[in-house]
TrEMBL record:
This is DUF1156 domain-containing protein. Transmembrane segments: none annotated. Belongs to the N(4)/N(6)-methyltransferase family. Pfam families: N6_N4_Mtase. Residues 734-753 are annotated as: Disordered. Residues 114-148, 521-664 form the DNA methylase N-4/N-6 domain.
Amino acid sequence: MSGRAAIRRAASSGWERLARTEAPELPFESLPSDGIALAPLPGTRALEDDGFPFEALSDVAETESWRKEINRPTTHIHKWWAQRLGTVFRAMTIGAFAPSGTDIFDLFYKPVRIPGGTVFDPFMGSGTTLAETVKLGAKAVGRDINPVAHFLVKCALSVHDRAAILDTFHAIERDVAGKLRSFYRATLPDGTQAEVLYYFWVKTADCPSCASPVDLFSSQIFARHAYPKKFPQSQAVCLHCGGINEVHVEARDTKCGSCKKTFDPNAGPAKGQSATCPCCEHTFPIAKTIRASGKPPAHRMYAKLVLLPDGKKAYHPATDEDRALYAKAERALAKRKNAYPVVAIEPGYNTNQALGYNYRSWHDMFNARQLLCLSMLADRIRAISDPVLRELFTCLFSGALEFNNMFASYKGEGTGAVRHMFAHHILKPERVPLEANLWGTAKSSGSFSTMFEGRIRRALDYADDPFELRVSKGSKTEKVFGLSEKIGAPVADDYTAFARDARVYLSCGDSGSTDLPGRSVDVVLTDPPFFDNVHYSQLADFFHVWQRHILGENGTRVTDTTRSDREVQNADGNEFTDRLASVWEETHRVLKDDGLLAFTYHHSRQEGWRCVLQALMQAGFGITAAHPIKAEMSVAMPKQQAKEPIDLDIILVCRKRSKLETHRWNGDLWGTVAPPAQEQVNRLRAANRKLSRNDVRIIVMAQLLRQLSRSPTLDTALHLLDSANGDTEALIDRIHGGGTGQSDKPVKRKGAV
């Protein structure tokens, strides 16, 4: 069906009027010949319809979620901790402007434009909302209190000169690549020269009884395949002589090929939180022993993976030559001035674990060779004269940091080799860290050069020709091009410039206070932070100190931390509620009276939902619709380790309460909550989605909040919520118990890429 036919098919008279309305003259791409123009008309929106196609959109979002960095590369040029799915926010944006009755899933694959609309995201994070808004031809306003988020979104959405970027990369390569790679060379036993892909290290702790250094291996197998049942060969280090042995991944007894001694490759001195000294057999607590030393733990290099001249890879033990080369890097680093940022790590929920291992400053997380090579690369990037290019390559440099530190580890064969330091969403000291070749080779993972190809080039390609994913029958996936505008526009740094002629306005600061005029925004789309989860600023400081080191102490980098006492994220529920309410109050001020606020959210605890309800109603909003949708985490380690993983988000659609009718509940509450919750669960199960009890919980809680937000007063709503716990749990049990009885852990769906 053509775009014009879709317009004629729509049932809403407002939709028909829209088809005849000419788009205003704005500095956007012209509307495609078969395109559809949406405008912020009054009335109910498609995003508020009960028939919003969340199950079909979830299938597309599922496919995107497995390789977000490939399927939405523009918003994945740098690490952020809540990188939402572009599929979801494209659908939300279209649904927020399209009138009720519109077939959103059909429109999803049409060249839609919203030339008269303005979308605001007060928690822009990695910029998903803004990128999807730009693709749809609307004006985008983004704000975030964290300087790292502001920086990466600015780099992602700015206009970039592809030729200049390539020339700059090649110039950097000419100037420093050879110097960096010289510290990752090795001579093999037959005299062959080879490049080192990775050095393998192990943390050591001095035995409190005999003072002997103890390797903190929990297993002497240090390299295995990502699919060990199919490929059981693995690499084990002999702790008697240091020899490297290929062993079966489940072997419990093997003879070292070098010293001929037998050992258990699946055992090591460390077991859980304790270690046993091989010399005196004294068992001691690891963390307590390291803390008592008063310094970060020491490391021992024991193996390397080299790239042979014929392109094959080979594991070898560390040699005296390797140790001498590392010592050379230590001496070179000592001679450099201002080589790296020296900034203390502040205590916090996400930093205390590192502090407990005596990591006192951010540079403690790197070894000397890493600091040397990062210093040389940083100096070269700082010398780039063009500010846009300097910022883009600083962004690339910053992104490479999470793979090139002593908190990274080895994922093994058959997958990307380097497990980045934030795999656990905390600063977890790694007992067997991996040191990667910073510049890298064609076979490297997480290196500066390969990330240039995998992140920057891929993002440029996507920005020039964005695509959407379509899952066809048989779960085959295709890319659909030609639906969107290019990504890339001059970014305004104040509202005056934005109002005059800009498409994108980004700012860094408290979203509870903006320079946006009242009633100037048509739609607010966002994803607020959780109050008791990952504290972004505590982790973002790892990147911020290096960005500041290269780009200077100015603008958004005046201080050496991204932490702020105005952050919404707060472990205290009352503080979180007050700060979130402050942002929603500002949202209420800048949003047009007939505009929508829509955001994604999930939480496993009652308190998390109470905070959201209180903040919304305190700010003057009520919920008009709630839709379950695929959440972003398909491969995140915290989800894989959870007993009741949450695979869904909830889209909460809100309007100003002054535009809504209130309702006094008199025994009829659950009659309005249970049916839509049951229907949504039924729709998801009919689409072959397995739901955990926590998935059902968020559906029930969202429908409960939807009704309670219509209460006459906030006190009434909160009282009903607080007294509804027993009924809530009973309804969750009843709905969840109506499932198939199969495992409630989500599985990778066919067609995921």
